[in-house]
Specification:
The complex is a heterodimer of chains A (380) and B (362). With 380 residues, chain A is of the alpha/beta class. Chain A has three domains: 123 residues, Rossmann fold (3-Layer(aba) Sandwich), CATH 3.40.50; 61 residues; 161 residues, Rossmann fold (3-Layer(aba) Sandwich). Chain A is built from 15 helices and eight strands. In chain A, strand 3, helix 4 and strand 4 form a beta-alpha-beta unit. In chain A, helix 1 packs antiparallel against helix 6. In chain A, 45% of the residues are buried. In chain B, strand 1, helix 1 and strand 2 form a beta-alpha-beta unit. In chain B, the strands form three sheets. Chain B has a four-stranded parallel sheet with strand order 2-1-3-5, with helices on both faces. A four-stranded parallel sheet of chain B has the order 8-7-9-10, with helices on both faces. In chain B, 50% of the residues lie in helices and 12% in strands. Chain B is built from 16 helices and ten strands. The chains are: A alpha/beta (380), B alpha/beta (362). At the A-B interface, helix 4 and helix 14 of A face helix 4, helix 5 and helix 15 of B. The complex binds iron/sulfur cluster (2 copies). The site of one iron/sulfur cluster (SF4) has 13 residues of chain A, from helix 14.
Chain lengths: 380, 362
């Protein structure tokens, strides 16, 4: 059995480690590309949201490389993701592929089914093997994200365009190759020091932009046309509201163990003047984090959503009000299979232009002038 | 007390209005329903919402504005209907509906809002109902009575739908005058002439049992039956759907909708899915389709879907794949948004019916 899974940003690094350490043969799909998207779009429902289409493309390309088993996450609604696996299975079966599908449903109080599905996937493994695999995967995940976080900060100050991106790519490769916990830690430290050692502009205070939105577009540079890098290379320091490590910690682990969900509560409270209920996906987080970025004095927020994404349409309807009330420019970018790099870059440039003029104006007048002339930039 | 509650004629109106009406009236409130969807309402809704919103959500905003403009309502009823059963939802957009309206439309009359969420069981349900009553100044004992009556009216309504009536017909027969007769309101210029009800006198349409309802529903033609599936606020809003149902009836077709199939049947059929579908309305639609695939009884199936609708994009796909795999019956998907032209839909509809008729003649 050769196992594959869909891409989402750099998630393949910890996932590969997890499955290999459980004794499986893994086929990572080729990096998502135009071809992936074309294959996925051609074979998916026209109005399915973009992540499903790219998933389907990933699976087909992995099958071409010999994969014959798919691992996918499940869900309990209300948004479409929870039913992706079922629909994807039907699409691939109708295309005539022979494969096994493993859908890991979130435990609803009972672990039995999850363990059963996992058991079907990995066969007999010892508890210590499982613990080891999870530790390695977790270490890789947190290293990947520590590197990404640092890169998003330093990139805004790099003297030579592209040097941070290059250093990051090398560091990620090293993490992917590392096999033991020790090797991972070394790769992480080396990566962090190479990135921070990149020649940087002195006394430059970059603009700060927060990125909010649907998890898949936020994490997948192929789909969001590399917004994070584009903004960084325009000299903007970017903070993402979603890191998978946080997210897993919050939703999976704490949910399972029924911990208090402190940070989710905080986001909900921040969102509550505008949105008072969970709406699936990351809709309420998009609103809550935008409020938070405004309070922290960020210069702007970029909101990313796949076309037709239900939770984010709710958020998109509400963000103009947040923008106006809290005087922070917010721009929604909607992605589908036709989104083109040039369009997005032009809009990002215009946005950065606007926030930098706003910054110098606010700077000249002192803080918090309540100047509304630049407030509430919002375009569709 | 004399307060008046405005109810937007959109979204879940088509499934729950008799209940809401009874509840508010029993609490002594007057109830006003917005006008039938028309061009103005659609335009108002489109202007108030983001482009990406689906047509039904846009239309809902239009109805809210219609009520707000009229000025004689004290409240507009916009409940947050998260879930009407365990482990299932309607749609994420319903979960954020009052918030979307509040942020999109200002100023606005007070919203009568309560949160209905049965996804994790019915704890809190009564509190939500009492809370609603309290906003109208009613005491719990009175609220409980009103609610029970409202539920029995809803059951009556559901039975009327199962007997083959459309929501407007059923409401009419229950004496709920909502100011609409089936078949009005097309999207073209000069819209508004009621479609003839197959030459049957109005009251035979609105009285009597199943046989009569079926006759009224077009059973006097050559016995052609077509299922029209879709979210009720699409299939039954003749402005949104371009009067697909009355048009089919005019062509002598008997129309069947998911609401006409008893819920136990659709529920049982939907259990053939590997994984239970967590959208209540979607599961009903899929169940109806699976029921038809298995038991026949229809000659073709139309699926009316909103452009960009999340649930439709997957539910419609699953239905289409299954129908095709089994070669069960002709299937057509009609996707609608605010730009859809009526002429195109009518042409496709006629071609679809012709094709089925020709197929049967062979
Ligand atoms: S969050 Fe949005 S994009 Fe993701 S599955 Fe749900 S609807 Fe689709
Ligand atoms: S179910 Fe579809 S049509 Fe209805 S509100 Fe949700 S997205 Fe819109």
């Amino acid at each position: 059995m050769k196992v594959t899974f869909p891409h989402m940003g750099n998630l393949y690094i910890p996932l590969r480690a997890l499955f290999e350490n459980l004794g499986l043969t893994v086929i990572v799909p080729p990096k998502s590309s135009k071809r992936t998207l074309t294959l996925g779009t051609r074979n998916s429902p026209e109005f399915a949201c973009l992540p499903l289409k790219v998933n389907v493309g990933n699976f087909i390309e992995a099958f071409e490389l010999g994969a014959d088993a798919v691992v996918m996450a499940g869900g309990v609604g209300p948004c479409r993701f929870g039913y992706y696996g079922e629909v994807e299975r039907e699409i691939l079966e109708d295309l005539g592929y022979n494969f096994e599908m493993f859908i890991i449903e979130p435990p609803q109080g009972r672990f039995r089914e999850v363990l059963h599905e996992l058991g079907r996937l990995v066969g007999r493994v010892t508890a210590s093997q499982v613990i080891h695999a999870v530790r390695i995967a977790w270490e890789k995940l947190s290293s990947v994200e520590a590197l990404e976080r640092l890169a998003a900060k330093v990139r805004a100050r790099e003297l030579q365009k592209g040097s941070v991106t290059k250093a990051l790519a090398q560091a990620l490769k090293d993490i992917d190759k590392a096999e033991t916990l020790g090797e991972i830690r070394t790769a992480r430290l080396d990566g962090l020091s190479t990135i921070s050692g990149v020649p940087q502009r002195e006394d430059y205070t970059p603009l700060r932009v927060g990125i909010v939105g649907e998890i898949y577009v936020v994490l997948e540079p192929f789909v969001n046309l590399d917004v994070e890098r584009e903004l960084g290379e325009m000299g903007v320091e970017v903070e993402r509201s979603i890191y998978l490590g946080d997210w897993i910690g919050l939703h999976v682990i704490k949910d399972m163990l029924r911990f208090g969900r402190g940070s989710l509560k905080r986001v909900k409270r921040l969102a509550s003047p505008y949105l008072q209920h969970f709406v699936g996906g990351h809709g309420i987080e998009s609103v809550g984090h935008s409020v938070e970025y405004a309070r922290k004095g960020f210069d702007g927020v970029v909101h990313l959503a796949p076309f037709t994404c239900m939770p984010e349409i709710v958020a998109e309807s509400i963000l103009p009000r947040v923008s106006k009330d809290l005087d922070i420019p917010i721009m929604s970018l909607i992605f589908d299979e036709h989104s083109a790099d040039t369009g997005v870059v032009t809009r990002l440039e215009a946005f950065v232009d606007l926030i930098s003029r706003r910054r110098s104006r606010l700077g000249n007048l002192g803080k918090d002038t309540g100047d509304v002339s630049y407030a509430g930039l919002y375009r569709r | 007390m004399g307060v008046t509650v405005g109810v937007p004629r959109a979204l879940l109106y088509y499934l729950y209005y008799p209940m809401w009406h009874t509840f508010f009236e029993e609490l002594g409130a007057g109830v006003v329903v917005s006008k039938a969807t028309n061009k103005r309402i659609l335009d108002l809704g489109v202007k108030a919402t983001v482009d990406e919103a689906c047509l039904p959500v846009k239309v809902f905003h239009g109805h809210v504005l219609d009520l707000a403009e009229d000025g004689d309502v004290d409240f507009i009823f916009i409940p947050r209907i998260v879930s009407t059963e365990r482990r299932a939802y309607i749609c994420p957009k319903f979960m954020g509906l009052p918030d979307m309206v509040r942020n999109n439309i200002r100023p606005l009359p007070p919203i009568l809002d309560t949160c209905i969420d049965l996804s994790k069981g019915d704890a809190g349900y009564w509190r939500a109902i009492f809370d609603l009553g309290r906003q109208l100044g009613a005491r719990p004992s009175r609220v409980r009575k009103a609610y029970n009556l409202a539920v029995s009216r809803l059951k009556e309504f559901d039975r009327a739908l199962e007997a083959g009536r459309l929501p407007d017909e059923a409401m009419h027969s229950m004496g709920l005058e909502t100011g609409i007769v089936t078949g009005t309101g097309t999207r073209g210029a000069g819209a508004g002439s009621p479609a003839p009800q197959n030459g049957l006198p109005q009251d035979s349409l609105l009285r009597g049992g199943r046989a009569e309802a079926e006759a009224a529903a077009g059973g006097d033609g050559d016995g052609l039956s077509i299922a029209v599936l879709g979210h009720p606020y699409n299939t039954y809003d003749n402005y949104i759907s371009m009067s697909i149902i009355p048009r089919l009836r005019d062509m002598g077709v008997r129309v069947v909708t998911a609401e006409m199939i008893p819920e136990e049947i659709t529920e049982a059929a939907s259990q053939r899915l590997r994984k239970r579908l967590f959208w209540t309305l979607g599961r009903r639609l899929l169940g109806a389709a699976l029921h038809f695939i298995e038991n026949g009884g229809i000659d073709g199936c139309l699926y009316v879907s909103s452009f960009g609708c999340g649930p439709d994009s997957l539910v419609g796909e699953l239905i289409e794949r299954r129908v095709k795999r089994e070669g069960a019956f002709p299937f057509m998907m009609v996707t609608i948004d605010e730009q859809t032209g009526e002429a195109g839909v009518v042409t496709r509809l006629e071609a679809f019916v012709d094709m089925i008729r020709r197929g049967r003649a062979v």
